[in-house]
Design brief:
- This protein is of the alpha/beta class and 244 residues long.
- It folds into 2 domains: 161 residues, Rossmann fold (3-Layer(aba) Sandwich); 73 residues, no CATH class.
- It is built from 10 helices and 10 strands.
- It has a 6-stranded mixed beta sheet with strand order 6-7-8-3-9-10, sandwiched between helices. Strands 2-1-4-5 form a 4-stranded antiparallel beta sheet, with helices on one face.
- Helix 3 runs parallel beside helix 6.
Length: 244
């Protein structure tokens, strides 16, 4: 059974139709890329999946449940996690405390009151930081990290929810080539327990890590397939030659 099924999703903002009937299927434990020219509807689709805004028409089914009209907290409880393009880490707090707060946010108030929260969650915090090569920066302020490291920190925070599906909006935006390469290496192990939908403009990055690609153009699906199939698609080649 597919983990995520988007069927006939449209999104209208006033007189603008940002999405015009999009179908996307994401399988469990796979990385699925959303690519296309600027303004093609990639981020709009990601937000419709996450509940940052609701689809005008169509359905979004996640893990067998219709979440089309579910509020973002309910989608999160079902196992969806979203990282936006702009980092949302707390720059004046330490790297350690950013992850600690992300973990505490998913504990009940009674659970927090009954435990020494910082001590109880220490191993989880350090495990999350270690996965993203940030353990040696644990005591530094998040604002002292490079842009790429801040992106890694926010992904680590998103993964504290133990989501079934992580949505990433341009995770390598503003990164150096070395940071982009490292990001791909850091994300690959996640596939063992979490699927991802990734909006990205760096085609080399997304081709290296994704199992399948959906190409959007003017709010509709231009093509969908494996990386090899998309690379050989005449329709996609025309769009990227003439409009990207």
């Amino acid at each position: 059974m597919a983990l995520l099924e988007v069927r006939g999703v449209t999104k209208v903002f006033g007189s603008l139709k940002a999405l015009g009937g999009v179908d996307v299927t994401v399988e469990q434990n796979t990385f699925h890329g959303l690519i296309g020219p600027n303004g093609s509807g990639k981020s709009t689709l990601l937000k419709a999946i996450a509940g940052a805004h609701f689809a005008t028409t169509g359905t979004v089914t996640f893990d067998g449940k219709d979440i089309t009209n579910a509020e973002p907290p309910e989608r999160s409880r079902q196992g969806l996690s979203l990282k936006f393009q702009i980092t949302a880490v707390l720059l004046e707090l330490s790297v350690y405390d950013n992850v600690l707060l992300a973990l505490q946010g998913h504990k009940s108030i009674w659970g927090l009151l009954r435990s020494n929260s910082r001590a109880a969650l220490h191993e989880e915090v350090m495990a999350a930081l270690t996965k993203f090569k940030l353990a040696d920066r644990a005591d530094d302020l998040a604002g002292e990290l490079s842009h790429g490291q801040q992106q890694w920190l926010e992904i680590a925070m998103a993964l504290t929810q133990k989501p079934k599906l992580l949505l990433l909006d341009e995770p390598t935006g503003g990164m150096s080539p070395e940071e982009r390469r490292a990001t791909g290496e850091l994300l690959m192990p996640i596939k063992e327990h979490c699927a991802m939908v990734i909006v990205e403009h760096d085609l080399d990055f997304i081709k290296d890590i994704c199992d399948r690609l959906t190409v959007l153009d003017n709010g509709t699906v231009l093509d969908d397939g494996t990386v090899a199939e998309i690379e050989n698609s005449k329709k996609v080649q025309e769009v990227y030659t003439t409009r990207v």
